[in-house]
Amino acid sequence: MSSKPQWLAFGGVLLLTLTLLSLPPTAATRIKQVVGGVYLPLFGAVGAARELTALAADAVTPRRVLRRRLTALEAENRRLRIELEQARTAREENRRLRELLGWRQTSPWRLKAARVIARDPAAWWRTVFINAGLRDGLKPNLPVLAAEGLVGRLGTVGEVTSEVLLVGEPKCRVAVVVRETGENGVLTQLAGGLWDHRLVTLTHLPRSTRLQPGQTVYTSGLGGIFPAGLPVGTVVDWRTVGYGLYTEARVRLLADTSRLREVMVVMP
Amino acid sequence: MSETARSLIFGGLAVLAVFLAAAWDLPRRWLGAPLDLLPPLLVCAALGRRPGGWRLVAVLGGLARDSWSANPLGASILPLYLTGWFLHARRDLLSRELVFAQLTLGTIASAVIPLFTLGLVMTFGPPPVLGWWLAGQWVALAVTGGLLTPVVFRGMGRLDRWFAHPVVETSAFRPDREILRGRY
């Protein structure tokens, strides 16, 4: 252990580590993107293999199953058409009322679909990587959704891949409102037990809260990153903290972030 | 197989191990933690004759892991390197043939490396997500790392045999002991 070449090599590695750790964030991000770029062909190959598997599965699906699925989808389509008509009427009414009150019109969301290609190999972060980046018009801090609800926001955006900071990550705080009570709070970080990764802490709630389990939590639009009205989760339980000064609740996220395959980025 | 080729293979496998941990979702769903092959590879490389293999695993693997992670860049290199160095320096005292020894070394390495990395992350970077679930993930990482170590040893042994010259079978026949019969 005391031979000179060993110590020289260790000195070199120590120097490399300290240099890398003290790099400015932009330089470190650039190096990460360059090293990560080596893997892109591998991720492309995995994506192609998945698509081929899906195609093969489609090819062997019996006609009877496909017909049953088609019938179910047609029924759902009819129901959704009715709901769409109702939503159109409500939106039109909303527009007229906004005009009457002189409020600014809200712009509808534009969504960009992307596939989750990788997850953080370190266990102590809640980040995933998607196969869209600057080339697709993405920018840092854009909200990311799944079909069930809010997933997180974009962190570092590379040329063809982007990092998504999931809800529960300390760097991804979300200003929310409890729909039933109108109380505002902030989703901070994971509050789960040993295995539950969908429980996050909702803090800064008033002391005299009227929370009930099952109440729904939506983004409040405060803070400027997340637009108002994105579904986030449901209240599980709550307790008073800070010697009774304020209330903290646990919220179960609607989107299961451990099973994400496709996400949608809310474009500006 | 030459030692240089063996070291390069270890380096390549380290890069692939990071890809596997990032892209393969199934172990994460079942165990709650990714399948981390870097510690088993490091143990296998560090118990070899030359230091090139574990050094490449530590530097390339650490750099690759930090590139696909929110870790500060470089945080994974030093824990891997120091663990590899420790094992390599004491390789004469450590048993490497027995499966139980491989399993124990793999478990210890898989438990120590994340702890050391977490310490560096908390020192140099933003605060990570901590909680009881992380303790569960740490146990899962240690156990799966331990179980994978004998598999890595087996795989590398097979690879060695593929690339090595076939062993010449020595015959029990000795010409100097031959009993010659007949007339001389």
Explain what you see.
The complex is a heterodimer of chains A (about 270) and B (about 180). Chain A is of the alpha+beta class and about 270 residues long. Among the domains of chain A are: about 35 residues, no CATH class; about 60 residues, Rod shape-determining protein MreC, domain 1 (Thrombin, subunit H); about 80 residues, Rod shape-determining protein MreC, domain 2 (Thrombin, subunit H). Chain A is about 35% helix and about 30% strand. Chain A contains four helices and twelve strands; from the N terminus they run ααααββββββββββββ. In chain A, the strands form two sheets. In chain A, strands 1-2-5-4-3-12 form a six-stranded antiparallel barrel. In chain A, a hairpin with an 8-residue loop joins strand 7 and strand 8. Chain A is globular. The model of chain A has no long low-confidence stretch (mean pLDDT about 85). Chain B is mainly α. Chain B has one domain. Helices cover about 65% and strands about 0% of the residues of chain B. The mean pLDDT of chain B is about 85. At the A-B interface, helix 1, helix 2, helix 3 and strand 1 of A face helix 1, helix 4, helix 5, helix 6 and helix 7 of B.
Set down the secondary structure blueprint.
The complex is a heterodimer of chains A (268) and B (184).
Chain A: H1 4-21, H2 25-37, H3 40-60, H4 63-101, E1 110-119, E2 127-130, E3 143-145, E4 150-157, E5 162-166, E6 174-178, E7 184-190, E8 199-205, E9 216-219, E10 231-241, E11 246-253, E12 262-267
Antiparallel strand pairs in A: 1-2, 1-12, 2-5, 3-4, 3-12, 4-5, 6-7, 6-9, 7-8, 8-11, 9-10, 10-11
Chain B: H1 3-23, H2 26-31, H3 38-46, H4 52-67, H5 77-89, H6 99-124, H7 132-163
Helix pairs in contact in B: 1-3, 1-4, 3-4, 3-5, 3-6, 3-7, 4-5, 5-6, 6-7
